[in-house]
């Protein structure tokens, strides 16, 4: 009966709101803010004038061409301070799907799965945005890199979380090859999964696969299935497509162990297109890995979007479709055949500090664009923080899901972090949000193992010098004048404080500025309240995990009363206090 009432409420809402849109969430892999619209700086995701001027000095041949992403930016809204839930793949994707910030999640880094793998099923009790829109009658499908399951038929399968159909790779352990021998699919109405074999990929050498049609390229096959689904979709039932490409990430040609032979990793694409060695000869370093990455952005990602728009227009549903383009984290430096490669070779980070796995802006800030003709005002931009974990509730609003619908309850648990920013999407200005919209946003990455290198190379970088968690807490109390970011880039690093609204390059650390003391304390208290400690790996760095917290502060900070439980800083030294907030320890 309750479900019937909410369906009735939805049907009542639709006429006032308008027909619910089709929704496409397109997620790129490891793509930084500087990699798109290099040829069109006026539609860039970079807003640092000095960095924009620097990019404009790049020779045209060196700039990645992304005409479709330029169109989406010109006709839609750019989010200039958009962030991933984490700076690495697994926790970022879990956070996107479930709408839960990483500090409240089980998956906080790569390596938190069985036997240290990156494969983790969606947590019990969590839902996905597929389940949200499914509750109001949407047809749903997911394609590409799922990355939120331990296998092909486990509890994390998309077909068990609101998606009618899936085609791609379920687990991280299945991904890594540009020309795979097998791709998988499932349907919600049937149990199990199907395996699709690609015998032409048994030998996926450079010599063979660099030819048209000789091998089956993973992202091209995903593209074909996604476009086929949209082509066959009913024009009377709205659909949601989650399209998660592998393009942007490093990959392998040969069918070899992706970690044991990591020196073979590169950026394989069927064609380099315009990015030939001769074309880039006078522009700087032009290895095959650099040119392959540039080609991947244009001929896979941007071409995916071009064909998507063409399909929507051919069906006459372009103006009835919301597209959200984003990336799972910042750019990497994993072109192992070219050990000198860095994101700076292609201006991937847009001049930001840090890369993938860093909690500096270059690791967490991502390119996000929303497009819906007639609803989202064209050529607009927002500087309000838009998080990947905001997407579920934003989609819910776009689809007309009643705000108090039971299906939204898993997304509104305490400290989940996500909010609906659909109203902001539709607005020309940021004035529709304020410091009261929410007090903070948060990103985190944790390391369960110690180490920097493997096989003498940075390969793959999924460990740090110490176990524990790195993080970035963005304090929004001063919005729209400032966005104060408390950041620890490694578990054993010192805290830093930046105003990333006015200092996106994180060049002026204000952590020792007495005028910022209140901001620093507020950010520390907020972080202590919004996350669950991982004491298995934080036992040496997080006071909440210490057996005798006050004794720690007594020896480390000069806390005078050994029996007390908390401290706060005063002008002269440290004094202990025992105060609580929301029943949580603030030490």
Set down the secondary structure blueprint.
Layout (H helix, E strand, L loop, with lengths): L1 H16 L4 E7 L20 H8 L10 H9 L1 E3 L2 E2 L5 H10 L30 H6 L4 E7 L19 E5 L12 E6 L6 E4 L8 H4 L8 H15 L6 E6 L43 H28 L5 E7 L33 H4 L3 E4 L8 E3 L3 E2 L3 H8 L23 H5 L13 E8 L20 E8 L8 E5 L7 E4 L17 H14 L4 H4 L10 H9 L8 E4 L4 E4 L10
Parallel strand pairs: 1-8, 1-9, 2-11, 3-12, 4-5, 4-8
Antiparallel strand pairs: 2-10, 5-6, 6-7, 9-10, 13-14, 14-15, 15-16, 17-18
Helix pairs in contact: 7-8
Describe what you observe in this structure.
The chain has 587 residues and is α/β, with parallel strands linked by helices. The chain folds into two domains: 21-434, Alkaline Phosphatase, subunit A (3-Layer(aba) Sandwich); 547-578, no CATH class. The chain contains 14 helices and 18 strands. Strands 7-6-5-4-8-1-9-10-2-11 form a ten-stranded mixed β-sheet. A four-stranded antiparallel β-sheet has the order 13-14-15-16, with helices on one face. Strand 6 (182-187) and strand 7 form a beta hairpin. The protein starts with a helix and ends in a 10-residue tail after the last strand. Residues 8-16, 453-458 and 551-587 have low confidence and may be disordered.
Number of discrete helical segments: 14
Oligomer: single chain
Biggest sheet character? 10 strands, mixed
Number of extended strands: 18
The overall pLDDT, averaged over residues, is 88
Keywords: Calcium, Hydrolase, Metal-binding, Signal
GO molecular function, one term: arylsulfatase activity
Organism: Mucochytrium quahogii
Family: Belongs to the sulfatase family.
């Amino acid at each position: 009966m309750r479900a019937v009432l909410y369906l009735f409420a939805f049907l009542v809402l639709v006429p006032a709101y308008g027909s619910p849109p089709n929704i496409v969430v397109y997620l790129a892999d490891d793509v930084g803010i500087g990699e798109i619209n290099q040829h069109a700086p006026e539609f860039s995701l970079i807003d640092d004038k000095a960095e924009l001027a620097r990019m404009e000095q790049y020779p045209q041949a060196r700039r990645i061409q992304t005409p479709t992403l330029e169109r989406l930016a010109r006709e839609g809204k750019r989010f200039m301070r958009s962030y991933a839930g984490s700076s690495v793949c697994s926790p970022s994707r879990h956070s996107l799907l479930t709408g839960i910030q990483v500090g409240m999640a089980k998956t906080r880094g790569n390596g938190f799965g069985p036997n240290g793998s990156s494969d983790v099923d969606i947590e019990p009790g969590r839902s996905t945005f597929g389940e949200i829109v499914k509750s109001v009658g949407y047809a749903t499908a997911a394609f590409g890199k799922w990355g939120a399951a331990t296998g092909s038929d486990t509890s994390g399968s998309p077909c068990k979380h609101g998606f009618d159909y899936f085609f791609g790779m379920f687990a991280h352990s299945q991904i890594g090859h540009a020309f795979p021998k097998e791709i998988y699919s499932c349907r919600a109405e049937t149990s199990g999964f199907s395996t699709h074999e690609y015998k032409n990929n048994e030998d996926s050498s450079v010599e063979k696969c660099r030819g048209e049609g000789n091998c089956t390229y993973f992202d091209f096959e995903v593209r074909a299935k996604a476009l086929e689904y949209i082509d066959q979709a009913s024009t009377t039932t709205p659909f949601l497509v989650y399209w998660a490409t592998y393009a942007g990430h490093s990959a392998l040609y040969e069918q070899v162990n992706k970690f044991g032979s990591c020196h073979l990793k590169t950026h394989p694409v069927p064609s380099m297109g315009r990015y030939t060695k001769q074309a880039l000869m006078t522009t700087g370093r032009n290895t095959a890995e650099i040119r392959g990455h540039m080609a991947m952005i244009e001929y896979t990602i941007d071409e995916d979007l071009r064909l998507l728009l063409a399909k929507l227009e051919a069906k006459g549903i372009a103006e009835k479709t919301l597209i959200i383009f984003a990336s799972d984290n910042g750019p990497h430096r994993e072109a192992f055949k070219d050990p000198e490669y860095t994101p700076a070779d292609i201006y991937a980070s847009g001049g930001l500090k840090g890369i993938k796995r860093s909690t500096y802006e270059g690791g967490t800030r991502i390119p996000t664009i929303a497009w819906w003709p007639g609803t989202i005002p064209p050529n607009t931009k927002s500087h309000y923080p838009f998080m990947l974990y905001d997407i579920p509730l934003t989609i819910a609003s776009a689809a007309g899901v009643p705000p108090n619908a039971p299906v939204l309850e898993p997304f509104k648990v305490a400290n989940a972090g996500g909010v609906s920013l659909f109203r902001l999407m539709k607005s020309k200005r940021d004035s529709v949000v304020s410091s009261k919209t929410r007090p903070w946003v948060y990103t985190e990455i944790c390391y369960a193992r110690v180490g920097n290198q493997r096989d003498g190379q940075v390969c793959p970088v999924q460990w740090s010098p110490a176990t524990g968690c790195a993080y970035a807490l963005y304090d929004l109390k001063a919005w729209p004048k400032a966005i104060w970011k408390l950041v620890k880039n490694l578990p054993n690093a010192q805290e830093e404080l930046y105003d990333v609204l006015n200092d996106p390059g994180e060049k002026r650390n204000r952590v020792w500025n007495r005028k910022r003391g209140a901001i620093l304390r507020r950010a520390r208290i907020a972080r202590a309240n919004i996350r669950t400690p991982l004491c298995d790996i934080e036992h040496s760095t997080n006071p909440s995990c210490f057996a005798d917290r006050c004794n720690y502060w007594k020896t480390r900070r000069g806390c005078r009363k050994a029996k007390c439980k908390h401290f706060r800083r005063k002008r002269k030294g440290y004094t202990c206090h025992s105060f609580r907030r929301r029943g949580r320890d603030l030490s």
